[in-house]
Amino acid sequence: MRNIYEKLQSDKVIELQSNVTRKIFVTQLLCHFVPWLFILFIITHTEVNAQKVLLGIDLLQKNNFTLLDGKNVGLITNHTGVNSKLVSTVNLFKQAKNFKLVAVFSPEHGLKGVVSSGTSYASHTDSLTGINYFSLYGKTRKPTKEMLRGIDVLVYDIQDIGVRSYTYISTLGLAMESAAENKIPFIVLDRPNPLGGRRIEGNIVEDDFISFVSPYKIPYVYGLTCGELATIINSRSAIGNKTKCKLQVVKMEGWKRDMLFSDTGLIWVPTSPNVPYQETPFYLVGSGVLGELVVFGIGITYTLPFQTFAAEWINADTLAANMNALNLPGVLFRPISYKVLYGDWQDKILNGVQIHITDFRKVNLLTLQFYFLQVYHQLYPDMNPFTMATTNRMKMFDLVMGTDKVRKKFLKRFRVDDIEKFLNKDIGWFRKLSKRFYLYN
User: Fold this and answer.
1) CA distance 277 to 271
2) Of 431, 45, 427, residue with least CA distance to 204
3) What's the Rg (C-alpha) of the chain?
């Protein structure tokens, strides 16, 4: 009896030990693998959700290009016209079986994006395919009747940067005009605004300053996708529309107004030689107008396009200290000296500051260059950049600003306070107008 009892007790102890061992083993197993499972989940989740936005071209392709069935197509595009897998729209259109690509039109910088700013280039015909490749930045900037002969529909697919002076949107408007005059339907394949769909900065263009770098009466930063901009241009003579075309926008899927380009999951393709990165449009707004004077280096002759304020005679440390003392939201300034690689100051050393945007949502971009001029004038009052600039460069400054009032008001005291009200006067009106044409909420 005792032996039986002892055996039972022994079996119980073994079972208890076994249970404890099992629990310890399971606990160790979980401790070892759960972090890895969590990491795997995060990686998988990120990969699944990385592609948040489908472009207009993606949707057109997904629907087997049925919108273009049986048509002779003219495509307005350049190297930025790619789907989310980086396949060019030109190639997709060439390979499609249900319609025919007969002509390709390209804006400033050419089809491959390698032509320098302001440089014209010629049209040509591909002898193998018979496709006409037309330049819209040469002798003509608007498709002519001859160019459009035999075309049933025009399709626009170009990534712009959300800035009024960037000439792709001028090409968009002129092509829409031509489509209206020749009774050809116009389709925009929509793409994100890299500055987002909320940011609006700057005054609208005045009548005497309408130009290829300020084509519409809109703020300098306008907060619309190219499809939304096309819709508003087509509907409102108040901002510069001349004729109304038969317009259709192939919307994106998944884009939201709060998205910067980095939020979309899309791959950035440099939109022109000096806009290599998805952040560059922010810096372009902050320094590009000042760059028109060609008095200061803004980094486009170096490796930091639109990211510097510099000149041979500037003391970099002093300038940086004074710029940072302004405590401007979302931006810091670092002293920098660099050797210019090409252009007006080739092989010369420029000194100044590198702009570092620390919060892309808080920084006010357009006023950055005027704050620099304010500090610069305090340090170098006898070296007025506006008198140092040529007449033609001064004219370009005003055309890009869409007015000469900003320059004239600022010149009185070199104070941002004197122009801030003018820069902001049209924002409320334009935001209210824009909301009526939003394609995305």
Assistant:
1) 9
2) 427
3) 29
Alpha helix (H) residue ranges in 75-216: 89-95, 168-181
At 27, the amino acid letter reads T
Residue written as token pair 């949502």:
361
Catalogue all structural domains in the chain, each as residue range(s) with its CATH number.
56-267 (3.40.50.12170), 280-403 (3.90.1150.140)
- What's the CA gap between 27 and 366, in Å, rounded? 58
Q: In angstroms, how far is the first alpha carbon of the chain from the final one?
A: 83
SS3 of the chain: helix, strand, coil, percent, to 5 = 40, 15, 45
Helix (H, G, I), strand (E, B) or coil at 261: helix
Distance (Å, whole) CA 75 – CA 86: 17
The pLDDT tens digits for 93-128 are 999 999 999 999 999 998 998 888 889 888 888 888
Answer yes or no: are the C-beta atoms of 125 and 156 closer than 8 Å. Answer: no
What are the structure tokens assigned to 100, written together? Answer: 């025919």
CB 220 within 8 A of CB 202: yes
Q: Is 394 exposed, middle or buried (0-12, 13-18, 19+ CB in 10 A)?
A: middle
Q: Is the dihedral of CA 138, 142, 145, 149 positive or negative?
A: positive
| Nearest residue to 169 (alpha-carbon basis) of 179, 158, 178, 155 | 158
Alpha-carbon span 52 to 262, nearest angstrom: 11
Q: How many CB atoms lie within 10 A of CB 360?
A: 16
For residue 66, which phi and psi values (nearest 5 degrees)?
Answer: -60, -25
Q: What φ, ψ does residue 159 adopt, rounded to 5°? A: -85, 120
Specify the residue for token string 């340090």.
379
Do the beta carbons of residue 163 and residue 385 sit within 8 Å? no
Instruction: List, in sequence order, every residue forming a beta bridge with 400; answer none if it has no partner.
Output: none
Measured distance CA(178)–CA(147) in Å, rounded? 10
pTM, two decimals, is 0.87
Q: What gap in Å lies between CA 262 and CA 406, rounded to an integer?
A: 32
- pLDDT tens for each residue of 348-402: 999 999 999 999 999 999 999 999 999 999 999 999 999 999 999 999 999 999 9
Contact 117, 273 (CB under 8 A): yes
